[in-house]
Design goal:
The protein contains twelve helices and 27 strands. By secondary structure, it is α+β, with helices and mostly antiparallel strands. An eight-stranded mixed sheet has the order 4-3-8-7-1-6-2-5, sandwiched between helices. A six-stranded antiparallel sheet has the order 16-21-17-18-19-20, with helices on both faces.
Length: about 475
């Protein structure tokens, strides 16, 4: 089995010998191990038959006929991998990565195809993909067409995002940021079809439910010791929890970005209820628990909420601080820590999320500035803890495919590490990047590494061609006129 980084140039049939639809150098064919033909040619889920002619020049360029390219829904490629399996035989071109996004990211009617808050991240993906031989295609749920086995998408060509039709990709990365969109029945049916029929890996396939994650991690002896006391919201459980903990957090079970979080504090002769709002913290006081529960019931309505133990956490300049550790699968398919940052709350907010006006600094710098903390963990300990959590979570959620997790950790005043949350859709906005001048953030490079791993690790995927013998396709050729 041979593999090589190549370029593809698509030309009219008149440039090819009769019955031939591919031309490459002898040296490239040798490197790929092509010794027999015809053979299958695949690009994503598309399959056709290849018949090869060789030339003696040294080159990594493969010339492809228009008709073959049309069958594969292929366009000119300046950087992609070719992998030849002599046992099928098959020439596989890719990887083709599909990035699934919301339908409401302000791309309709925009000449530049601005993807809203995802624009810079997707631009970086296109650049990184080009340098690593990964073809990037961005698409919406409505653009998956099962009947034609194709997707209408955006790809970056000559610095601009343009629309193209592609086959189903080799890998799909779910970057939908709306639970409502993600849970739509028609989308779930499409994704299930792509996984079940075409065996396409789809990673970070869904949002995580906070309480489900809590119950899952309680099964791990090591991780369970880091979990704050957490129960589903009810008035009965609220009365029990206020007796156990002086501070409680009431948070949406399916919330994100710190939205909807409420802090309850027991003070002498009163209760303090503080809510996170876009403009700061709204504070209400009540004289008794009955009045507090009425306020909470009105605030929560029919939404599903949790009650979580409040912790005596370390503070940075009198502000709340926690740590986001980004873990990703690497080029070997194993969990790896890509980055770790300290998130410092705005002095007007009860949460540290960047969406609520928090700031971000390198985790090591924040830890170095924190003084008089007994048993203060190092950044290496935080990263190892996050890695252990990822491995435990993956083991306990076998069958679910995650390749990127945001692990939110906090440190209490005794130096103990707590797990606050696991996030399956870590932020990709510009303000989450510590070094905004960097061309490609490390998380994007790691993403390309993992996609390449998935593409190359299993060459027997059933969205590739059948194992029967390929039959040559007789293309009409336009021969040169004889003189």
């Amino acid at each position: 089995m041979g593999r090589s980084r190549i370029q593809i140039q698509i030309l009219p049939e008149r440039h090819f010998p009769e019955k031939v639809n591919l031309v490459m150098s002898k040296s490239l064919a040798q490197k790929l191990g092509i010794r027999t033909q015809p053979f299958w040619v695949t690009y994503g889920s598309a399959t056709s038959t290849g018949v090869l002619a060789l030339h003696s020049n040294q080159s990594s360029l493969i010339r492809m006929s228009n008709q073959l390219a049309s069958h594969l829904l292929m366009t000119n490629q300046t950087s992609i991998y070719a992998h030849f399996d002599p046992y099928l035989p098959r020439l596989r071109l890719g990887p083709l990565l599909g990035v699934l996004i919301n339908t409401d990211l302000q791309i309709k009617g925009n000449q530049d195809h601005n993807f809203g808050i995802m624009t810079k991240f997707l631009d970086e993906c296109a650049v990184a993909g080009q340098s690593q031989g990964v073809r990037i295609a961005v698409f919406e749920p409505d653009h998956i067409h099962l009947n034609t086995q194709s997707i209408r998408c955006w790809v970056k060509e000559k610095g601009k995002w343009v629309q193209q039709i592609i086959p189903f990709p080799d890998v799909i990365y779910n970057r939908i940021t709306s639970r409502r969109v993600e849970q739509q029945a028609i989308l779930q049916q499409k994704l299930d079809h792509l996984k079940r029929v075409y065996h396409i890996p789809i990673f970070n396939e869904k949002f995580l439910n906070k309480y489900q994650v809590h119950k899952i991690l309680l099964q791990d002896e090591y991780v369970s010791k880091m979990l704050p006391d957490t129960v589903p919201f009810s008035i009965l459980d609220l009365k029990k929890m206020v007796k156990k903990h002086p501070v409680l957090y009431v948070k949406p079970n399916n919330g994100s970005l710190g939205s909807g979080i409420i802090r309850i504090t027991k003070a002498p002769a009163k209760w303090i209820m503080q809510s996170a709002t876009p403009n700061g913290t709204l504070t209400r006081t009540t004289k008794n628990l009955t009045e507090l529960t009425q306020l909470l019931k009105k605030r929560i309505g029919k939404q599903t909420y949790l009650i979580q133990q409040g912790l005596q956490l370390i503070r940075y300049d009198q502000r709340q601080v926690d740590f986001r550790v980004l873990a990703q699968k690497n080029r070997h398919g194993r969990w790896h820590i890509t980055s770790s940052v300290g998130r410092i709350a705005n002095d007007q907010h009860i949460v540290s999320n960047l969406a609520s006006g928090g700031t971000v600094r390198k985790a090591n710098d924040v830890l170095n500035d924190l003084k008089n903390i007994p048993n203060k963990p190092t950044v290496q300990q935080l990263r190892k803890t996050a890695l252990d959590i990822c491995n435990a979570f993956e083991k306990l959620t076998e069958g679910q495919h995650y390749a990127e997790l945001g692990i939110d950790l906090a440190i209490d005043q005794t130096g103990k590490i707590w797990l606050i949350e696991i996030n399956s859709k870590p932020s990709k906005t510009d303000d989450s990047v510590i070094s905004p001048t960097i061309l490609i953030r490390p998380s994007v490079t790691q993403l390309m590494n993992y996609v390449s791993y998935l593409f190359h690790k299993d060459q027997q995927k059933s969205h590739s061609p059948p194992t029967s013998t390929p039959t040559p396709i007789l293309y009409k050729t336009r021969g040169r006129k004889s003189k």
